[in-house]
Design goal:
The longest helix is centred in the first third of the chain and has 47 residues. The chain is elongated, with a radius of gyration of 26 Å. The chain is 28% helix and 35% strand. It has two domains: 48 residues; 108 residues, no CATH class. With 167 residues, it is of the alpha+beta class.
Length: 167
Amino acid sequence: MAGLLHQFLDDVYVANHGIDGMKSILTILAVSCGMVIASLCASAEQKDKATWKPVEFAIVKFNEEAPKSWNLYHTEKKGLLLLHLWKRYLLIDMKEQEAYEIDPQTVKVSGESLEWSLANKPEEPIDTPEWKSRDIGPMQRTRFRLGKDGLFLELQIPLQINGKPMY
């Protein structure tokens, strides 16, 4: 029944406005649908991009020494850290005890914070043997090796009074 009603209304519209009128309405509908789809995709992409803020008072050691250039960032998702070490970026998943090498071209710096999407996370993590985490007073110390025979990376992250990380 709905199909017959739709056909009848199309025939009435064509009879009143002609074929060209029908084509223009279809064009307008197609363009409108395209614009709605494009805006939905753009908003989903913006939601996927996370803002990473610096972890205050963190300490980073690379092979028992402080690197000359580094910064540690956190996002609202707990347990994920983004380490900027010289020209490299590492995504560190504290819960899964994994580290991923991030393509620096996918990271956008804006002031003190960064923008980077978790959708750009590589599929395979870096081999991180000898992963050890423990509380050392007001800090959580996490230490692991980068690669099977690589150097050690150590992160010291400040803890709140209740023992949870500050980020």
